[in-house]
Amino acid sequence: MGKADIVTKEYMRKPHVFADAFNYYLYDGRQVIKPSELKEMDTAEILSIVEETAGGKGKSRDYGVQKYRDILKSLTVMSGSEASYVLLGVENQTDIHYAMPVKNMVYDAIQYGSQVSKAAAEHRRDRSFESRAEFLSGFAKEDKLQPVITLVIHFGADPWDGPRSLHEMLAVQNETVLQYAQDYRIHLIDPGSIAQKDFKKFASSLREVLNYIKYSKDEKGLARLLREDERLKSLEAGAARVIETITNMDFAMNEKTEVVNVCQAVEDMMESREQIGRQQGELIGRQQGTLETLINLVQKGIISVSDAASEAGVSREVFEEKMQSAQK
Questions:
Q1: Most confident listed range (19-33, 36-50, 70-84, 244-258)
Q2: HEC profile for the chain?
Q3: pTM of the predicted model, to two decimals?
Q4: pLDDT computed for residue 301 by the predictor
Q5: For position 281, what pLDDT does the model report?
């Protein structure tokens, strides 16, 4: 797992950031999902299907599949006086994934399948099947599944140009075929697709992270963002670390850093780069001047080629090449 994967996963796992992403996508920024309502779940999606054979008297076939999501949390929702759950998953993508619809479809299918398997195991343990059909299904007529919603967060400056649905991936685009071939669409938050006015619908630092990434390859746009967004002057360290990692910046952070003035950090870094550039330029200038002086001394017969090469810190062959270039 690369550094970007680790940093983005650690950041998106934070309840207030995770809730903010789903509030933006599902509720247009309204703070409906509360961080306190979320419960961390095991990201290993394990499906073990035990299929009863017809008339098998206990004979069965066991199928096992295991996948790992980035993040999975359960959300408690009330239906009248009863509490139920919605399962919310996040997949972080620093690069565009051109098979994302299939990847997410597999994750969700395994989660639904594992719910069916769990229900079947409980029914067999309690001997609560009421009909042969329920026994063979492993699922009772009144059983219900918990909804699963997977949200893809794209942490990349390039606009998402990958497919957003299974139908887009199919080789056949005949309308009749597509009408009956089941589709599967991904839910995607892509910085490049977010209108500037819509960034305000984010309540957490995810606003600044995605906004910065969107303009990270646009010099003028980034300069405007750094000038106008006051929240970038006191950004939580986790968010700053995502920006730093994704955009290959260096904010001079350490483990004890809690808040980062991103505007100042970028300014300091650019100033440092300019200073290093000036120093390198001056060094090259001095080296060039020294080399020209040594070539001149050799041409006048004052010192030998070997001595001049040694003084310049290069081999005799390299020095002779420099002499030939200077004479052209």
A1: 19-33
A2: CCHHHHHHHHHHCCHHHHHHHHHHHHHCCCCCCCHHHEEECCCEEEEEEEEECCCCCCCEEEEEEEEECCEEEEEEEEECCEEEEEEEEEEEECCCCCCHHHHHHHHHHHHHHHHHHHHHHHHHHHCCCCCHHHHHHCCCCCCCCCCEEEEEEECCCCCCCCCCEHHHHCCCCCHHHHHHCCCCECEEECHHHCCHHHHHHCCCCHHHHHHHHHHCCCHHHHHHHHHHCHHHHHEEHHHHHHHHHHCCCCCCCCCCCCEECHHHHHHHHHHHHHHHHHHHHHHHHHHHHHHHHHHHHHHCCCCCHHHHHHHHCCCHHHHHHHHHHHHC
A3: 0.76
A4: 78
A5: 45
